[in-house]
Design goal:
mainly alpha; globular
Length: 1129
């Protein structure tokens, strides 16, 4: 090889990569060079003679490629000489950092490649070189950079090079390196860091930055990397053959080996990092690395502590260090708080606190001498976060992130203390938890009070902010935060409620005074502030008063119930606050034409009815039998008449206000939707629903809604019809029920039929007015469908069935208007989901199925072969919504139970399975590959195919060849999908099909097996390929294992040949030793297969192929033995 000529060619290629016209050809020249045999001497020549950094980089990467590819051609002395040469080169030839990193990587790759074959002395070569370099005053940086490359290369965190070696190799080298050298490198880096800190202490005026202090920077990089190392002691199991990505498991909890005890459970190490943190604050990157190291050290837990005393001593040291950091951030000036790194520092400190307090039991934390001083300071920091949020609204979101970290920590401490008291028999531990809980009680109100004040202060900025909201309500946006605050508030409910009561009373009174005096409807700025305050006070009160439980299960929170029992009725805080809020509701409920109504806030109305939605579930008509002892005050104020309660008068009041506000806010869909949600709550609780149906106000309320449909926003018609229909379905008499339903059905029919049967419909159907009326009519029918129950199904079906064919015709008429098609499809889907088919005559069910097939055929006619506007489809909030709805429809049909059997013996009846297979046959040609890139659509498509195969395996062999092939292709697509649920569903379906095939042989159904044999064989191959050669999520092991068992039982004759075929396809040359290991693994796998006493002797069930603990152990051992050899990186 002519080295000068090679150098010239490489330099020319490197220069040409800079120009677009020659880049592709130049890249190919470089690739060809690196793939050439015996290029090590040429690479060394290039390094020695080229001054061009990019050329040097290519030479170094060429060395890496060559040594991986041709390692066996070189002697150990050649390898060691190469390592020496590369280290010497970096020492003697100053290069750009990215070039030197490539050279260090080459050294690390060479070292790793020979690791398992080398003796301990040979494994020590590079580490000894690192130690030697660190001992030389002028070469310490080189030593650290080499150490960094070594740590990265042996890491399992995705930083290791792709060198074509097995997972087993990577795993063993990582564990060996971890055991022999990782701690030594950590200690060496710690020593360098300590020296650098001493230098900073002796010369505090010097500039501190990564550029000026490379030893400091590099040692921190190494320490941070090692503290995040995925140790073999980690509690999370690693599935053999699974290579981590660089960003995988960044939040994984690190479990350090006991052998690291002396270096990590070390007061001097803690002190080093805590001392260093303020010294590097001028450099944000160095600051970040020190903080990350401290976060890990704060989270030490488990067996690394030799005793309880050692744990307590460590926690004490961390608390001492954190107290200093807390003091620094809590006492900074306003200008300092505006610095960009302030919030980062605050968030990091709060994370350190959370790490420290999250992993230790309550009694251990209690035993730390500094606990109360520390917790007091943490409480102060929590309040400081809120203070700063209120001062700096533009930074409030970031600082609130730090507050949230602390809030989560407080709630966990409270819950852990409560659980210790409830569950632990140890007197000492219960006493410790009780003492801590008393302390939490003492500080909880300080935090809650400051939170309320902060929310009120930030509310002012919200009023001044003219930007439109994101469409979410505050109780959704800040829901998690408010739930946590509620947990603290209920520790001291009396003070919390007292604060809320005073704030609400004052502001309600001020607003009422304003309403009584306003004459022009103008809203002064201070009233806008007042309304925003009221909104937030209502929201916080709503969370404190009640949890967001669904249905009958909501109860008055225990702490509030107990407080209520201690208070006279006239002074009951719960009763008085509710009365205050209802007074506000009365004050803002006006006739829509009044002057005062102009000054009312839709947000206040919305918030009040949101509050009522939560409150009604827990308080109205509470059942004393659900409590050990329900407060007499609450029973008297809100209970049923049979318990001496006045709940009926409350309900009557709410009905009246609900009706007034419906008129008042008839143009505001958000408020109306919330009022309907509140009304739905009336329907969910049987006691409230029964009282509502017996109320004299209910019939006029229903008539009011029906009579005013025309003036209410169409967007709420669906939910309004659903709510009313649901409630009336529980009417005590059929006559009353029929009367109410007659009002509803007549209103719907009048609106819908009037448009549909209009003589000018054919000419005007495309006009916006007619389309809006048609779409509104469909929404009204959909409201009925969503209200379906087993009791009202016959009545609603009888009404809707008169229009089923008209709905289908609308799809044909509006073939160019997907929004109409989607509404029809959704209507049918919701009817399928909610009809109780078993209470209908077979003829009606068959007719409905016939109409559904006609609908699918109409959908196919207007969509098949049509060039869809992909950009429009994918720009929508729900891409390809029509296809998604059809998928949901067919899945819903598969969920209907018992109808196939009910109709099996009825001549000419249309079965649900017929509808599903027809639908799938229609849908498959419409679904294109780009549609399956939409996660939700893809998941539903595979769910449909999976459920179809599971539900009707017997019909697969009867399908037309094209349809069968398409179904099988869909399952093949799902095996190796990046969405976990898609793969899970696919394996389930294949297992069901294989199991049926296995059982078919008992019934002499040879035709079934012969039709599916090729597909089953391919599934067997693809499943094994997925298990052995590709990335596999550990959560798929059970379902994939069951799939393998079913496939092997169905296709035993194909299994043996497949093993040899797969081993021949291995990317790694198999030595006799490896071949023996793989053969043994496959042999042991057979122990998991169902025995010959079952297979072919009786019908097999899913239980026969289920992953029992014993099978799972065999299967995982098989994967460990085979994937580790066959998976390469």
């Amino acid at each position: 090889m002519d080295f000068p000529q090679v150098l010239a060619a490489i330099e020319k290629a490197c220069a040409e990569t800079q120009h677009p016209s020659t880049r592709a050809a130049a890249d190919q020249v470089l690739i060809n060079f690196k793939q050439s045999p015996n290029i090590l001497p040429a690479c060394q020549y290039i390094l020695a003679n080229s001054k061009t950094p990019f050329v040097q980089f290519q030479a170094a990467s060429g060395i890496t490629a060559a040594i991986v590819r041709e390692y066996g051609l070189y002697s150990k002395s050649d390898i060691h000489s190469l390592q020496e040469y590369l280290i010497t080169y970096n020492l003697q030839h100053p290069t750009l950092p990215w070039v030197s990193r490539q050279i260090y990587q080459a050294i690390a790759v060479v070292s790793k490649r020979g690791w398992l074959e080398g003796t301990e002395q040979e494994q020590d070569v590079v580490y000894n070189q690192i130690s030697h370099l660190l001992s030389m005053g002028n070469h310490e940086v080189t030593g650290l950079l080499l150490a960094r490359a070594l740590v990265d290369e042996f890491s399992s965190r995705g930083k290791a090079s792709n060198v074509g070696l097995t997972w087993d190799f990577h795993y063993k080298t990582k564990n060996s390196f971890e055991e022999r050298h990782l701690r030594l490198i950590f200690e060496a880096a710690l020593n360098v860091l300590h020296s650098e800190m001493q230098d900073l202490l002796s010369n505090p005026a010097q500039e501190v930055s990564g550029t000026q202090k490379p030893l400091l920077s590099t040692s921190l990089i190494i320490l941070e990397s090692i503290l995040h190392w995925d140790f073999s002691t980690s509690s999370q199991p690693v599935l053999a053959g699974t290579f981590a990505d660089e960003d995988d498991d960044t939040d994984k909890v690190v479990v350090y080996p006991d052998s690291w005890r002396t270096v990590l459970v070390n007061a001097e190490v803690l002190k080093l990092f805590f001392t260093l943190l303020p010294m590097v604050q001028a450099d944000t990157i160095l600051m970040h690395r020190v903080r990350q190291c401290l976060i890990q050290l704060c989270g030490l837990h488990g067996s690394i502590f030799v005793s309880e005393e050692a744990t307590i001593h460590h926690i004490s040291g961390v608390m001492t260090g954190l107290l200093s950091l807390i003091h620094n951030v809590a006492t900074c000036s306003s200008d300092e708080c505006l610095r960009s790194d302030y919030t980062d520092n605050m968030i990091a400190i709060t994370e350190m606190i959370r790490q420290l307090l999250s992993y230790h039991p309550i009694h251990t934390i209690y035993a730390v001498p500094e606990k109360f001083e520390f917790l007091n300071q943490v409480a102060g920091l929590t309040i400081h976060c809120l203070d700063e949020s209120a001062k700096m609204p533009e930074e409030s979101e970031s600082i609130m992130g730090a507050f949230d970290e602390l809030l989560v920590t407080w709630v966990k401490l409270v819950q852990d203390s409560q659980n210790t008291i409830l569950e632990n028999n140890s007197t000492e531990r219960v006493a410790a938890a009780t003492s801590l809980l008393q302390f939490f009680h003492s500080i909880s109100y300080r935090i809650v009070e400051k939170y309320i004040d902060t929310r009120l202060e930030l509310a002012k900025f919200s009023v001044m902010d003219e930007e439109e909201g994101d469409g979410f309500q505050d109780w959704d946006t800040y829901g998690d935060q408010l739930i946590a605050i509620t947990a603290l508030a209920r520790l001291d409910p009396q003070n919390t409620l007292h604060r809320l009561q005073n704030l609400l009373h004052g502001r309600v009174e001020k607003f009422q005074q304003f309403l009584n005096t306003t004459t022009d409807g103008d809203l002064p700025e201070h009233i806008s502030f007042l309304l925003e305050h009221l909104h937030w006070l209502i929201v916080i009160t709503g969370f404190v008063f009640a949890d967001n439980n669904v249905g009958e299960g909501a109860l008055v929170p225990e702490a509030l119930n107990e407080l209520s029992k201690t208070q006279p009725f006239e002074q009951d805080q719960l009763v008085n606050i509710f009365s205050n809020l209802m007074s506000l509701l009365s004050s803002v409920s006006f006739e829509s034409h009044s002057v005062q109504s102009i000054s009312c806030s839709p947000q206040i109305a919305l918030s009040l009815f949101w509050f009522l939605e939560r409150w009604v579930k827990a308080y109205l008509f509470s059942n004393p039998e659900d409590y050990a002892s329900l407060s007499p005050n609450l029973l008297h104020a809100y209970g049923e008449p049979s318990h001496g309660g006045k709940g009926v008068s409350i309900l009557e009041f709410l009905i009246a206000k609900l009706r007034i506000n419906f008129v008042m806010w008839n143009a505001d869909p958000d408020v109306l939707s919330q009022i309907i949600s509140t009304m739905n709550t009336f329907g969910q609780r049987s006691s409230v629903r029964n009282a509502l149906l017996q109320s004299e106000q209910f019939p006029p309320l229903v008539s009011f809604f029906i009579d005013n449909l025309n003036v209410l926003p169409e967007v709420i018609h669906n939910s309004l019809i659903q709510s009313i229909t649901t409630i009336i379905s529980y009417s005590p008499s059929e006559e009353r029920n029929g009367h109410y339903f007659g009002l509803i059905s007549n209103a719907i029919e009048t609106r819908f039929a009037a448009v549909l049967h209009d003589k000018s419909f054919g000419a005007r159907y495309q006009s916006s007015e007619v389309m809006a009326q048609i779409m509104n009519g469909l929404e009204l029918f959909n409201g009925l469908a969503l209200a379906l129950t087993d009791t009202n199904t016959p009545m609603i079906f009888a009404f809707c069935s008169r229009f089923l064919e008209s709905f289908v015709e609308l799809v044909r008429v509006y073939k160019n208007f997907p929004e109409v098609q989607i509404l029809v499809l959704r209507l049918y889907t919701d009817m399928i989901k909610h009809f109780e088919f078993t209470v209908l005559p077979v003829e009606q069910i068959s007719y409905f199925h016939t109409c559904t097939i006609q609908l699918l055929q109409a959908f196919s006619t207007v969509n098949l072969g049509v060039n869809r506007n992909v950009e429009w489809d994918e720009a929508e909030e729900n891409p390809y919504e029509d296809v998604s709805v059809v998928l949901s429809m067919l899945i819903a049909l598969l969920d209907v139970r018992g109808v196939d059997q009910m109709m099996a013996n009825v001549p000419n009846a249309v079965l649900p399975s017929t509808v599903v297979f027809t639908g799938v046959n229609i849908l498959i040609p419409i679904i294109k590959r780009q549609m399956l890139e939409i996660p939700r659509l893809c998941t539903n498509y595979i769910r449909l195919i999976s459920r179809l195969v599971e539900s009707y395996p017997s019909r697969l062999a009867e399908l037309p060849t094209d349809l069968l092939n398409n179904l099988m292709a869909s399952l093949k697509f799902g095996i190796d999908h990046n969405i976990l649920e898609v793969s899970h569903l696919t394996f389930q379906a294949i297992a069901a099909m294989a199991l049926y095939a296995c059982n078919a042989t008992l019934r002499n159904a040879t035709n079934y097996v012969s039709n599916l044999r090729a597909h089953l064989d391919e599934f067997l191959k693809l499943t094994f390929e997925q298990l052995l050669f590709k990335k596999l999520d550990v959560e798929l092991v059970d379902v994939a294992g069951s799939c393998v068992l079913a496939l092997v039982c169905a296709r035993q004759e194909a299994y043996g040949g497949l093993i040899q075929e797969m081993l021949a396809a291995s990317e790694t040359p198999l030595s006799p030793e490896l071949q023996e290991r793989l053969s043994s693994s496959f042999h042991h796998l057979s122990e998991a297969f169902p025995t010959t006493e079952i297979v072919g002797q009786r019908e097999m069930t899913m239980r026969d192929i289920a992953m029992t603990p014993a099978r799972r152990e065999i299967f995982l051992r098989f994967l460990m033995g085979v994937r580790g050899v066959l998976r390469v990186k």
